[in-house]
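seq as requested:
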Amino acid sequence: MLRNDLYTVDSITESHPAFQVSVTLNPRHAIFKGHFPGHPVLPGVCMLEMIRELMEDRLKQKLRISKGPLIKFLAMIIPEINTSFEVDLHYETKDGFIDTSGRIFHGTTTFMKYNLQLIQEPV
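struct tokens:
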């Protein structure tokens, strides 16, 4: 899990079936030493993991990403510059899947747009 290590949740704004999470990034996390040395950026896979974890917290169940029909990285999150940002999460449950979409952004800058399909992890 990346929560409370790579990032922390500052606040959650409810708007069922959507919510927005304000997060703060830990710019001193070890992942930035290797991605990329001297020019750190938040890895895309960490953004996806963050979305999955936030949805797990919301729905109180273990989830995994089963499809990613839209994952578009539009700007880099540079940890020394972009220490806080927002994650929009809209979701709908249908046919045993959870479709979620939204964006990761700060102000007028959108870092990522996504549309993911999540499924409950077997126990």
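The chain has a mean pLDDT of 95.
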